[in-house]
Amino acid sequence: MKRVLAAPAALIPLLAGCTVAGNAAGGGDVKIVVGYQSKTINTVTAGTLLRSLGYFEKRLNELGKAEGKKYSVVWQDYDTGAPITAQMLAGKIDIGSMGDYPLLINGSRAQAQGGDARTELVSITGYNLRGALNGVVVDKGSTAKTLRDLKGKTVSTSVGSAGHGTFVQAAKKYGFDGAKDVKIENQQPSVGASALESGKAAGLAQFVAWPGVLAVKQQARLLYDGGDLGVPTFHGVVVGKKFAGAKPKILQAFLGAQIDATRYLNANPVKSAESVAAGTGLPVEAVYLYNGAGGVATFDPTIKQPLRDALTNDVPFLKSIGVLTQPVDLKAFVNDTYIRQAYGASYDSDAAATPKPSAGETWISGEEKTTPYKDPAALLRGVREAQQQGRQLKAAYVADTVTGTRWFADKDVWVEDPSAGGQRFKPFATDEGAQKYLAAHSGAKVVPYAEAVRRA
């Protein structure tokens, strides 16, 4: 974790003239420092996509012209939320984005430091109400069938992250202590992926987009779907309270730009996924799995009540694993005043809205739009039709029969249930989910994906 505290080499020239974040650095040039996680694609509307669109810079340029100042943005990219928090507490980052657990740690440590260090959660980037943004994967050749099979083995995760939390909480449901009954390797996601591939770790518990990335690269399979836990997970934007009070127009410019980026993503899901993939090097099929139309993540900047409740419920857990060592005043930390102002009159109604269930989709290479399907049977027929026409299929996505978690159709476990009639073929994101269905439905059996497509 210490390695990511230093700014990436490409940013050093940009930082050279910057004294304190958000302050003038000679010649009336005011630099705003934004910490983000490019590969954590649930934050793209406040990071990777927002940066590529230039919406924040555009709004700052307009503000600067009105005020006779010159604003510029320094984007600092990190692998996890922990170093962003460290830099914020040091007064070197003005605005940051990170997951729910790191957000709580951020608020707790900032409040403990007190004074100008205090921070506030001011908006949400993306979320999943069931927790499906997190998952546990194993090597594709692993014999593990359930999470219980990882007991006594080595699991790589980023301690204090939502991926870590999902593993520990899920482990309790399987009758073992996810902190004591396994050897936890505290690693950045990319390092953990290498450990999994080399056999140094039996499992990898991580947040979006790593489970999907390793699956699409044929390097791992999903062992545990975070959606099975039923605990909301999300990412959000945090700012220094002093910064928000002293520079409200800049914060409004950022939140306005985030809203613009959110609307762009929702209106242009394929282009957005391609842009994020190009900027991060992640497989575009994995990016679209999470960020596409009906994807695992729902992008909405409003701070919804279920997400507030999730933070409250997360506090005891983070204390129990020893990563939240100081109390956190959530009423002081969560502040939707700023996003309300930027969002406008429809804030309350939109904050109360919940996403529609994920639908199946096929994505044909070279096409700018995907084709949605109302159910798995229709999707299978769509895949078969594309194959018969010789059209190259980039990816097919379908929702898990029980959890609703969207996953790659060709990497799902497909079950045929003759008693289900026209919906006889049912997809499951994990082998365990399929086995539970088989146990409850006499006559059902697992079938290869290719056979399901052929017979749909």
TrEMBL record:
Domain of life: Bacteria
Signal peptide: 1-24
Keywords in alphabetical order: Signal
A Pfam family of this chain: NMT1
Stored InterPro entries: Solute-binding_3/MltF_N, SsuA/THI5
Domain Solute-binding protein family 3/N-terminal, first and last residues per copy: 43-268
SMART domains: PBPb
Family, per entry: Belongs to the bacterial solute-binding protein SsuA/TauA family.
Name listed for the protein in its UniProt record: ABC transporter substrate-binding protein
Origin species: Actinomadura barringtoniae
